[in-house]
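Expect chain and fold; see below:
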Amino acid sequence: MDPQILAILKVFLSILLGGIIGYERERAGHFAGIRTHIVVCLTSTFLMSAFTDFGYPQDSIVKIAAGLLTGIGFIGAGTILSHGTEVRGLTTAASVWCVAGLGIIIGLGAYLEALIVTVLTVFVLEMRFFSLVRKRI
């Protein structure tokens, strides 16, 4: 496949999959919503794709991925708020970190894995509904 078309497909896949996870967070009324999740996933995809396509050595690509996952922790930390004994935003921070990893695997070309991770992540994020139902029974 033409490398330019592949790069465009990676970008659109990262927008779609990052947006699905971000939509769930936004729909639930959390701080980091669809735009945050899309931008994090898109940027991770772009950076990983660029470094792999330009022929950087494997150890450099691993360092880029490690830096992305470490750095995104600071953005995720901004979504965590503490009110006395209550902590809010921890799951949203984890979902932001997840879409960074999702962008990395899309950038590396693991499309099926990215789709599976997205489906499982949304399922897990929706489990809060099940825990609310269980408390009422």
In short: The chain has one domain: 3-136. The CA atoms of residues 45 and 104 lie 5 Å apart. The radius of gyration is 16 Å. The longest helix spans residues 111-136.
